[in-house]
Amino acid sequence: MKREQITPPFFTVSPKSYLVGNELIELAKMTDELAEKHESSIFFVAPAAELVNIVQNTEHVIVTAQTADANGLGRGMGRTPLESLKANGVEATFLNHMEHPLTIKELSTTIKRAKELGIITIACADTPEESAAIATLDPDIILCEPDCLVGTGTVSDESYIAETIAAVRAVNSEILIMEGAGITCGKDVRRLLRLGAQGTGISSTLALSENKNELLTDLLGALR
């Protein structure tokens, strides 16, 4: 899959490791059913052990890994090779999330190899300065979110959003920009899109919600 095939405004559903097995598959199927009704690209993110099952049970979401490695085939116990993701129908991967940071060398190598394999890369950045630095590596998407706000329910302020978007644009105008952290409802999604983001997403708030269908419907409805 290529960057040009992503339809903004896009959205990522990433329950992290709060849900596994049947609970995760149920959420993936729910997301897939809603994604069929939207022109926007919807990413569904899951741990490596769950990805094949999700690929086999969905049709409309972009199945996405939480991270990946560019070490190639051969030696490398405990890693998630990009080649394995490609062989099993996974179309995208997050990279450099605060819960799984990479060195610049690792990030650069992984983005390059992912491009060769046609795997979309979503690289995470904490500050405007880091956003600009990562933009030089040309990932397909940069997720700008302050590490200190991840999982808190507090959204990024307008100055942070403006500064990170400007920082990325100054380096590479082709990269798609996500703004995240603290998304809890459709109102938050509309706000970020109005401020210039091309996509956003949700993680723990959805995973822990008692009415996931209602919340997800609200979130994806805001993309329109």
From TrEMBL:
Keywords: Isomerase
Protein's UniProt keywords contain Isomerase: yes
Pfam family, one: TIM
A GO molecular function held by the record: triose-phosphate isomerase activity
InterPro entries assigned: Aldolase_TIM, TIM_sf, Triosephosphate_isomerase
Name this polypeptide is given: Triose-phosphate isomerase
Natural source organism: Enterococcus pallens ATCC BAA-351
